[in-house]
Amino acid sequence: MKILVSGAAGRMGREVLRAINEAEDMELVGGADPLAEGEDAGILAGSNRWGVGVHSGVEEAILACHPDVMVDFSVPSCVMPNIRTALQNGVSPVVGTTGLNLQDLQEVDRLAKNSGVGAFIAPNFAIGAVLMMEFAAKAAMYLPDAEIIEFHHEKKLDAPSGTAVLTAQKIAEARKQSPTPNPSGAFEKISGSRGGELDGVHIHSVRLSGYVAHQEVIFGGLGQTLIIRHDSIDRRSFMPGVILAIRKVHTLVGLTHGLEKLL
């Protein structure tokens, strides 16, 4: 398979370049990133020159490289235009960029079906994170009161993370009882102190240097708490999931959302 990496100059993009270069059944044919136009992908990846160029944008890269799959780890403002361009050219997108909403996902599904190719989007490519969400959904069947704290590096643009949003949705769907309501008269002395709320699950976002991607889900019950936590301490933790998605995307119809669908 011929692979194009969008967002090639970013921290995740560079890791994806290395992972694809190491995969025996894949050929890295190009990168796309306006911050690294004209550079060699191997140099970006911290290696020797590979003879693989980085283009200013996805459309230019597709026309030059003719990839089968575009892996996108760009930024929220660019991801939908990148996906549209890929699908219009019959290229399957594998997307880890977060910030997409339900309407975006519905559009991707429609465009992929119209183009006759598969598309894959995941809020998190770490297999441990997928298991964390599955375990949280199981716990919510018995402990309906839950809060989420997610920690990411200081350069992450969106909050809360896509993983936190999906976790909250899974908890809400799995509950057999309603969560305990706030006491009468409860208030915030500082707006936002209780975090955001989605389907009765409070989400707190931390953005600090030193973090990669971390999340803990705290359940409270009568005389007990349960904490389920996942830590990605290195971006290599996402690469097995990315490689799996690349290998599977051509077997899909329309959009598939979430790595758990491929496991």
- Strand share of the residues? 15-25%
State the helix count: 8
As for the CATH topology of the largest domain, it is: Rossmann fold
Overall CATH class of the largest domain: Alpha Beta
Q: What would CATH call the architecture of the largest domain?
A: 3-Layer(aba) Sandwich
Number of spatially distinct domains:
2
Biggest β-sheet strands, sense, barrel: 7 strands, parallel
Q: What is the C-alpha radius of gyration, as a whole number of Å?
A: 20 Å
Quick one: overall form?
elongated
- The span between the termini is 21 Å
Q: Identify low-pLDDT runs.
A: none
| H-E order | EHEHEHEHEHEHEHEEEEHE
CATH superfamily of the largest domain: NAD(P)-binding Rossmann-like Domain
Mean pLDDT: 95
Identify the strand order in the major beta sheet: 3-2-1-4-5-6-12
The number of E-state strands comes to 12
What does the model show?
The structure is a single chain. It contains eight helices and twelve strands. With 263 residues, it is α/β, with parallel strands linked by helices. It has two domains: 2-121 and 236-262, NAD(P)-binding Rossmann-like Domain (Rossmann fold, 3-Layer(aba) Sandwich); 127-232, Dihydrodipicolinate Reductase, domain 2 (2-Layer Sandwich), CATH 3.30.360. It has a seven-stranded parallel beta sheet, sandwiched between helices. α2 links the parallel β2 (27-32) and β3 (54-55).
